[in-house]
Amino acid sequence: MAIESATCILCRRLRQMNNRGLLVKGRYVCPECEARIIVLSRDDPDYDYYKLGLKKIWYWPSA
Ligand SMILES: [Zn+2]
User: Fold this and answer.
1) What number of CA atoms fall less than 13 Å from residue 32's CA on the CB side?
2) What global pTM score does this model have?
3) If you measure from the C-alpha of residue 63 to the centroid of ligand 1, how many angstroms do you get, rounded to a whole number?
4) Of 28, 41, 56, 58, which residue is most buried, by most CB within 10 angstroms?
């Protein structure tokens, strides 16, 4: 699967060179958001935003 250009699905940041980030089903999540998600707790005001963003990835229609 070739990724020509990718923007982070959560913060819309362009994928940087040498920036591996996270690819889930072809959707890119930048390292900063990835790190954010890992430490995110339910008390965090951003929790819902990230959770919804991830839902877009996890439940992305494959067809
Ligand atoms: Zn991001």
Assistant:
1) 10
2) 0.67
3) 25
4) 28
Distance CA 40, CA 22 (A): 16
CA of 7 to the centre of ligand 1 (A): 8
Q: Are 29 and 8 in contact (CB under 8 A)?
A: yes
Best CA proximity match to 53, nearest among 18, 19, 15, 13? 13
For tokens 């951003």, name the residue.
46
Cα–ligand 1 centroid distance for 21 (angstroms): 9
- Give the pLDDT confidence of 47-63 residue by residue, as tens digits: 988 888 888 777 766 65
Q: How far apart are the C-alpha atoms of 48 and 17, rounded to whole Å?
A: 29
